[in-house]
């Protein structure tokens, strides 16, 4: 399965080809694997996009490639932007409005993370993750708020599932993403009366992503063993969830979390997780018990 989308997505997907015609999306972390595919899906379905990132070359190259997906698409890459610095983000917003005319959708996707146990995690390392993932998400909405209000737009935070239970080596990101979910919920309540929706998408194990290669040493067959749907996620699964949440089909959905993980977090650390699904299948396939 490819990690990026091409034109065949428009034919294959359940979505109308011009679903987002006239809309503009502002995406932090848009050159990374998850957020890039979110941008690709929205552009393929008619939107224009601003891709925001720290690395100038990577950000500009991604924007150029995404622009080729649809004739007439306008995709700008704005590099050297750190979501921790609200003023630089504000400049990226000004440039987006100047070049693309407006902002309807905001994806707060920029993230920083690494595996580290509590004993070795410094206060500054913890702060770095909180600053990128949580403060950066706040800053992203802060600077786009005027546009969101004007256009009755929608916000999508990219979160995770690892704060639903205790995950070792992931203290910083777990705490940050719990905060991101709380931020989204509060914004849904505060901004709902303005016609602005705020939701969160929580990816699980998505194959071919930076998160998987950074955080998981497991082979594919090992990684998918504890996923109820018995496969790793694809970037297209993320694209579909993203399109849904921005589409009119979700016009009454706000303050929600869409978990796209094949059901994985439900079994991740529960009793029997080590033997999953062997003990479960043994029980299901065993001869019928006594009473109904
Ligand atoms: C322990 C570490 C460390 C590591 C950095 N630090 N890496 N500590 N183990 N592997 C410490 C440093 O020693 C320093 O603390 C502090 O963190 C800040 O480090 P800097 O390098 O100065 O920070 P900065 O340049 O701002 O870089 C931020 C970063 C970096 C998060 C540390 O990894 C980064 O920029 N990452 C961006 C890309 C990324 O991480 N993407 C992840 C996407 S995946 P001291 O005390 O020495 O000063 C993802 C999935 C989440 O987010 C969900 C999972 C399911």
UniProtKB/TrEMBL annotation:
> Has the keyword Oxidoreductase been applied to this entry?
yes
> Taxonomically, which superkingdom?
Eukaryota
Alphabetically, the GO molecular function entries are: 2,4-dienoyl-CoA reductase (NADPH) activity
Q: Name one GO biological process term.
A: fatty acid catabolic process
Enzyme class, broadest EC rank: oxidoreductase
Residue span of the signal peptide, if any? none
Q: What is this protein called?
A: 2,4-dienoyl-CoA reductase [(3E)-enoyl-CoA-producing]
